[in-house]
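Re: the 220-residue chain
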Amino acid sequence: MNIKTSISIFVIALSSVLFSFTPPSYKIALLKYNGGGDWYANPTALTNLASYCNQLMITSIDPDYATVDVGSVEIFNFPFLHMTGHGNVVFSDSEAENLRTYLMSGGFLHIDDNYGMDPFVRPAMKKVFPELEFVELPFDHQIYHQVYDFPGGLPKIHKHDDKPAQGLGLVYEGRLVCFYSYESDLGDGWEDQSVHKDPQSIRLKALQMGANILKYAFES
């Protein structure tokens, strides 16, 4: 066998390996809850975030996200749950227990305050983890330095009450199980540009932080 033939065989074999490789595939979900709050806010947000990650990172996230009830066993099919809205959030005892079991079993919840959610989401999550309090994550936490660096912590996307953006967390047995983006509104930054007309630089920060959250959730 001559050298040219050997190289050709190697190239064919390498091509076969490369084309047969598929990155990990993930399906993420939007959390549906009771109480009257608009859990369905930002309908294009998760689709755009998934598409951004697929284009800029080696991911294969299904842009067609699922919608799951907080009390359903279906939540255990997804490594990442996203929760948003503007108003009331109510968990029944069984729903709180279901979400607690999911998070204790390795699941991850991202709560994004779309404005006005804070007074309701805190008591709801207190029902899930009575023994835990939300704590502000330090700026050197891994979630801010996964793919993109955010040395100042959570980026500010929308003005809201003009308070500083805060990245809050629930930590169970040393693991961050819930990340709560407060006074930031990442989801609005993930939405189609035509919805909120945010500058591209602001949308990019939101998408980059979202990519960090997803990567952290998948690998933690």
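Helices lie at 3-20, 45-56, 93-104, 118-128, 186-190, 193-196, 200-219.
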